[in-house]
Every structure is written in C-alpha cells, then in structure tokens.
Amino acid sequence: MRSSVDDIRNRAEAILPEVVQLRRQFHMNPELGMEEFETAETVARYLDNLGLEVCTEVGGTGVVGLLRGSSPGKTVALRADMDALPIEQDSDADYASKVPGKMHACGHDAHTANLLGTARLLAEITSGGEKLAGNVKFLFQPAEEGPGGAEPMIADGAMRDPDVDAVFGLHVHTNLPTGQIAVKEGVSSASADGARIAILGQGGHGAHPEQTVDSVVVAAHVVTALQTVVSRETGPTDSAVITVGTIKGGFRSNVIAPRVDMEATVRALTPEIREALPGRIERIVKGVTESMRADYELEYSFGYPPLKNDSAMAQLVSEVGQRVLGDECVIQLGEASLGAEDFGYFASEAPGCFFRLGVSDEEKGLGLYPGHNPRFDIDESALSVGMSVMAAVALEYLSQ
Ligand SMILES: [Zn+2]
Ligand SMILES: [Zn+2]
C-alpha cells in the first residue's frame, strides 16, 4: 500500500461532510427493496461524476461502478446495500424519514453513502498520480432485507467483466463504539430459509370436538415438536434455529378451526445442517398431523446461504484495520450470528470478508438502539472510519 495510512485518513475526514449529507439525503428518502429508484439514480450520478464506468439496472435497481487502474491487475469489489425497511420512524432528528411507514432502520443509507465516499477517496488517490494496478468495482445492491438483491446482480453479471477476485463489505453495528471494527473469520452469519405449514383439520362446533379434527390443537403440537429438531437432532455445539413467527387460524371461541397457517424462519451455519433441516421438519409435521388425524401442506423455500468469510481476506481486513485504526480497535469475534446477510452470495462467488463497523457514541447519544428499531440512528463520524478501512483494504489487496 503506497498511500500512507495518514493520507487515507485525512482524505476520509475531508470527504466526511459530503458523505454525511448523502447519508441524510438517503435517510430522509428511504426506499424499500427493488424500489430504490431515486437512491440508485443518486448513486449512479455520483459515480459518473467521479469518472467511473457505471452500469445501472443491474439485477433490478442495482448499480455497479468500475474504477479502472492504470495497469492490469486483480479486481476487488466493495459492496453496499441501499434498501430501507417498512418501519415507522420515531425520531426528532431534522434528517428523519419524510416517508410515512418507511425508514432506514438497518443503516443501509450509511452503507451506501460510505461506499460513495470510498469511491471518491480511491478516485482522488488514483487521479492524484498514484498508479493503481487492477480495478475496484463498487456494488450497490437492492433489497438486502428481502427478497435479496445480490443473487440477481450476480446473475446479471455484476461479478464478471472484469471478474472479481475478492469482495468486501461492511455493516454498521450499534453494539460497537465508533472507531472500532469487528471481524469474524470463517462462518459469520446464517442461512435463512422459510417454511410455510398449513394444518388441515375439519371444522365444527366447539362443544363437539369428537366430530371434528381440531387444527389448532394439532398446530400447537407441531410448533412444540419442531423445537426438538434443534434440541434433539442438532448437535449441542452446532447451531440451528426454527422460529415459528406467525400462526393464524380460527373464527371464534366456539368454532373448531378447520385450518391453521404458520410461517417459520429456519437457520443454520453449515450447509450440512441446512440441507438436513427440511427433511427433519417434514418428518415431524407429517408424523404429528397423521397421529392426530389431520393433514398438512408444507412449502419450503431456500433463502440466503450462510456467509463464510475467507480466512486470508478476514486476516487482511484485520491487519489493515490495525494499521489504520490501531491494534486495540479491531475486535476478533468468536461467535457467528444466526442473523442472515445476502452478502453471502457475493462471498460464494469470490473470497471475501464482511465486517462490522462500530457506530455507537454514548456521549453524543447516538447509536444506542439496535438495527430494525424505530429509534435506530448512528454516529455519522464513524463513516470516516468506514471509508478509510474500505479504501485501505482495496489498495492493500490490489498491491499484493
Ligand atoms: Zn436489516
Ligand atoms: Zn442490514
């Protein structure tokens, strides 16, 4: 890495006010997944002004920017997500959401602004005379919160021409103070699959259960029995989650419900456990419903894969992070999260690392609420850290 750490940090500090302005613009105008039209337009215009090659409508509303180096080399991709959530914001900030029922409660506004700033930083360094061997690709993806934007972008060629050799991304975290990043080597987040289960009974009078098949009682047994897939069929040191998040059925207290519909999220950290879960779930659902004279329908859908950070790429982020921020500011995470991230698709295409950026500052009263909370907000000064680390990681990777 020829650019000094100080140079990168100074440039990031200088760009920060513009990045904060961009973040606030996105924050005030949140757009849901696959509807990021204005956001994508702002992103494309900004990259175009920097002189990058820009592709729009990649896999929907995705945008790809390409900074070509002055000589051939590897291609490193940096990724941000752009979508907001259908949550009513609870905030007094003058940059609060202007759209009722929508807000950037997961920080994707910050990710997008941060990556635009990183693009500017790298474009400035390379136009300032520093030779860049290889390319930096900037991936702005839609719909991370669902149905997923990484997979359609990959299908649309985002990781090819030039082919991506390594990919990096970050997520803001309010349980980490500003100035720190956290890295997890290996599997860092879970697969997220879904099961829709319908319990089919036979309706009737609440006073005469013997003439019916009570789908509510069967459903209750199914929910309970499903938990044994995790507790009795998954190793105690392995991880899986089955959460039945919705259960709907019935008309009133004295009517036996003919049908109950349930939706579950199913998560795992390894492909082996992930692939075993649908069969185990169906066996339990089938066994319980048959034993109680009911029938069932089961629809299983595969969502995001587990996200595995490549060891060498995770080490690169840690080493660069230590150089940019100081040894004590890079936290090594021991445990994976059962949350899911569709960065996992990019990381399945090329070795990569997805790390956490601390955005909490208690004194400022910012970054105190977790993601998806109506009061979620971040300490924006952390974006200078995010830009510095992202830019330094890209330069270090290309120089190797
Ligand atoms: Zn989220
Ligand atoms: Zn998120």
What does this 3D model show about the protein?
This protein has 400 residues and is of the alpha/beta class. It has 2 domains: 5-189 and 306-399, Zn peptidases (Aminopeptidase); 191-304, Alpha-Beta Plaits (2-Layer Sandwich), CATH 3.30.70. 36% of the residues lie in helices and 28% in strands. It is built from 9 helices and 16 strands. The chain has helices spanning 5-28, 37-49, 108-127, 150-155, 215-233, 271-291, 311-325, 343-349, 382-399; strands at 53-58, 62-68, 71-81, 133-141, 166-177, 181-183, 186-189, 191-200, 204-205, 240-249, 255-256, 259-268, 295-304, 307-309, 330-332, 352-360. The strands form 4 sheets. It has an 8-stranded mixed sheet with strand order 1-2-4-3-5-16-6-15. The radius of gyration is 24 Å and the shape is elongated. It starts with a helix and ends with a helix. The mean pLDDT is 97. Bound molecules: zinc ion (2 copies). One zinc ion binds at residues 106, 108, 144, 171.
SSE blueprint:
Blueprint: H1 5-28, H2 37-49, E1 53-58, E2 62-68, E3 71-81, H3 108-127, E4 133-141, H4 150-155, E5 166-177, E6 181-183, E7 186-189, E8 191-200, E9 204-205, H5 215-233, E10 240-249, E11 255-256, E12 259-268, H6 271-291, E13 295-304, E14 307-309, H7 311-325, E15 330-332, H8 343-349, E16 352-360, H9 382-399
Helix pairs in contact: 1-3, 1-9, 3-9, 5-6, 7-9
The structure holds zinc ion (2 copies).
Total helical segments: 9
What is the C-level CATH assignment of the largest domain?
Alpha Beta
- Assign the CATH architecture of the largest domain: 3-Layer(aba) Sandwich
CATH topology of the largest domain: Aminopeptidase
Number of strands: 16
Ligands bound to this protein structure = zinc ion
Helix content: 25-40%
Supply the helix-strand structural class: alpha/beta
Distance between the termini: 8 Å
* Morphology call: elongated
Let me know the CATH homologous superfamily of the largest domain. Zn peptidases
What count of domains describes the coordinates? 2
Low-confidence stretches: none
Radius of gyration: 24 Å
* Major sheet details: 8 strands, mixed
SSE pattern? HHEEEHEHEEEEEHEEEHEEHEHEH
Overall mean pLDDT stands at 97
- The side-by-side strand order for the widest beta sheet comes to 1-2-4-3-5-16-6-15
